[in-house]
Write a structure and sequence with these properties.
- This is Putative outer membrane starch-binding protein.
- The protein contains 24 helices and 10 strands.
- The protein is mostly helical.
- Strands 1-8 form a two-stranded antiparallel sheet. A two-stranded antiparallel ribbon has the order 2-3.
Length: 640
């Protein structure tokens, strides 16, 4: 639950060269470094260094450009076309965002984690390295047995997680439990995909084996920050089982006909409700472990220099801080690499930032549809709230006293920005919205977003926000952009306690249906957001007041709650896939405002910011065509 050690980070940096794409095919399962194994495991120090090399691919997964949960979620889009290749790290850095535009292909797949191309990592090399460690950790004679067991458990966790990452992307995959010998024949190297349930079972077995020998928490933070704990492993196990129980993998008719060449079915054709039971039990075990380890809701930690801070702003900073304040008690699992793309998520809220086009790019754009996902101030969807004027949400309205800490008083924006829940104002910035921070820590006279006057879209049409909405959640209030920009860097959380609560609520509903126990876990999340519980909110304000009383209705509530709570965290893309709901989200173009217009009336004209193309085949990724030629035992993902 803590950051990675400097020693580990150094090893990751030094060893990252080994995860570059290899020209070898099949699965790169034949080790090419046998001659160096004796020296690599000569003593405890060298063995630990090799283990840190096993961590390297995991740390690189914190890069949002590589995470399909972020780039293909529909909650963030990247404007096209752009001529400036310096955005997002140069050519290819924005590749993941192209998938929702229909540009995925099997000849040269985007986010290729099978071979390590197009912003993907070669997961088979990562798995091979874990196997090498497990096969050779006994060589170091000065390594105490208790330490060896723990290090082996870490390697097992990493191997399990790398397999899990591949399963989420490709479905049925080969299982590489041991490395093949150097003299393996071509036929031996041409291994086969295993049924998807067998793949999940293998991952769970590895995690169970690892949990036994992992410490519940990391005690020596100075030396071991960032190492895997038993609590992290239990939380990941819960997520794995929830994924297996979800519609994409549990009796999905879309993939029922997918078979190997020998006739083996790769997807179970029947739905199994027992999978939800196993996931439910794992979620509760993970929550109990996290609680015992000290996990709790985040408490705001304020830096110096604050002039005035209202209770309203304090709540918004608490909601945001749960994500951007690194290694806090709410973050069950965090990866160390610092989030380096704050300038892509921030608007220009000062004249100094607007004058320096290289200080802020703003390209990470939030579609109007994502902004409308957040609830009204009554805690229900805006299209269900009987008291919220959904029909006239695009009409213009000036900021008032009641919203002074959310919207600049007197500034004209759209009506849809008024009377929204606190998470909306904490997570999303828009034309006229207040921006506490960026050098101004007085919320009686704060900065604000002046998008109509060109702060959203400079004339170069390169460093601009395409929709008029920004992922404010990703930019800590301490960050300042201008002639001398200063970023408050933070490590990327892979799992927060509130997300784990909502996974448990999801399982409870699928197993037992609606009831007090399910509402309890949803309401714990809503309470921190300043909202009433599910029953009270829907009963009083929703046009569908009984929605929470049916399993289907409560499922929809839980799904929306999770999308709101984990917005922009790299979770939604995976959730929408496993729920088989991403196709619905991307069935219509992503919309935004007319950001290049310099009048209020002209700016607030809805335009298509990006066309989308996402069909059934996009739920799972294609294997590169060349891999199918070199290994005839592989079966291409259906529909590719």
């Amino acid at each position: 639950m803590r950051s990675i050690t400097k020693q580990l980070l150094c090893a990751v940096t030094c060893l990252s060269i080994f995860i570059q794409p290899s020209c070898k095919k099949y699965l790169d399962v034949v080790p090419d470094d046998v001659a160096t194994l004796e020296s690599a495991f000569a003593n405890a120090n060298e063995t630990q260094a090799y283990l840190f090399g096993c961590y390297a691919p995991l740390q690189m997964l914190a890069d949002i450009r590589r995470n399909a949960g972020f780039t293909t979620s529909g909650e963030i889009m990247f404007p096209y076309p752009l001529q400036d290749q310096s955005t997002l790290g140069g050519p290819g850095g924005d590749a993941g965002f192209s998938i929702i535009r229909g540009l995925q292909n099997s000849a040269n797949p985007v986010l290729n984690f099978w071979d390590g191309y197009n912003m993907g990592l070669n997961m088979w090399q990562a798995i091979r390295r874990c196997n090498i460690f497990l096969e050779n950790s006994h060589i170091a004679l000065d390594l105490p047995e208790f330490q060896r067991k723990r290090w082996n458990a870490e390697a097992k966790f990493l191997k399990a997680y790398f397999h899990y990452w591949l399963i989420r992307m490709y479905g049925p995959i080969p299982i590489v439990d041991v490395n093949l010998p150097v003299n393996a024949s071509i036929d031996e190297v041409r291994i086969k995909q295993q049924p998807v349930d067998s793949c999940f079972s293998y991952v769970i077995r590895l995690l169970d084996e690892a949990i036994v020998d992992l410490p519940p928490v990391i005690q020596n933070l100075a030396a071991e920050q960032g190492r895997i704990s038993g609590t992290i492993a239990k939380a990941v196990k819960a997520e794995v089982l929830v994924t297996q129980a979800s519609p994409l993998f549990n009796g999905n008719p879309d993939y029922a006909s997918m078979k190997r060449g020998d006739g083996t079915r790769l997807f179970a054709s029947e739905y199994d409700d027992k999978k939800w039971e196993r996931a439910m039990n794992a979620c509760k075990e993970a929550i109990d472990a996290a609680t015992s380890a000290g996990a709790d809701l985040y408490q705001l930690r304020i830096s110096g220099g604050v002039v005035h801070l209202s209770d309203i702003t304090r709540r918004m900073l608490t909601i945001q801080g749960a994500f951007v304040d690194s290694w806090n008690s709410e973050q069950v699992w965090t990866l160390n690499p610092q989030f380096g793309w704050q300038y892509m998520a921030s608007p220009r809220v000062t004249a100094e930032a607007a004058a320096n086009v290289f200080a802020v790019y703003s390209n990470l754009s939030v579609p109007i549809g994502q902004s409308e996902l957040f609830y009204s101030s009554n805690g229900v969807p805006i299209n269900e709230d009987r008291l919220w004027d959904y029909k006239n949400r695009y009409k213009l309205q000036a900021g008032d006293d009641a919203h002074a800490y959310y919207i600049k008083k007197g500034y004209t924006t759209v009506k849809g920005n008024f009377n929204r829940e606190p998470r909306y104002y904490a997570d999303v910035a828009f034309d006229g919205s207040v921006w506490f921070g960026s050098g101004n820590l007085d919320d009686n006279n704060p900065n604000y977003v002046n998008a109509v006057n060109g702060f959203a879209a400079p004339p170069d049409q390169l460093r601009y926000n395409a929709t008029g909405y920004w992922a404010k959640k990703l930019v800590p209030y301490q960050t300042t952009f201008g002639q001398n920009s200063v970023q408050q860097n933070y490590s990327w959380p892979f799992m927060r306690l509130t997300g784990l609560w909502l996974l448990y609520a999801e399982c409870l509903n699928e197993v037992n249906g609606p009831g007090a126990e399910v509402y309890k876990w949803i309401d714990k999340v809503r309470e921190r957001a300043g909202l009433q519980g599910v029953v009270a909110s829907w009963s009083q304000y929703s046009s569908n007041p009984d929605k929470y009383n049916s399993k289907d209705g409560l499922r929809a509530i839980i799904h929306q709650e999770r999308r709101i709570e984990t917005a922009f965290e790299g979770q939604a893309g995976w959730d929408l896939r496993r729920w088989k709901e991403l196709q619905n989200v991307l069935s219509t173009p992503l919309l935004g405002w007319n950001v290049f217009n310099r009048t209020t009336e002209g700016y607030y004209q809805i335009r298509i910011a990006q066309q989308t193309a996402f069909g059934v085949r996009n739920y799972l990724y294609p294997i590169q065509d060349y891999d199918l030629l070199t290994n005839p035992n592989l079966v291409q993902t259906l529909y590719w």
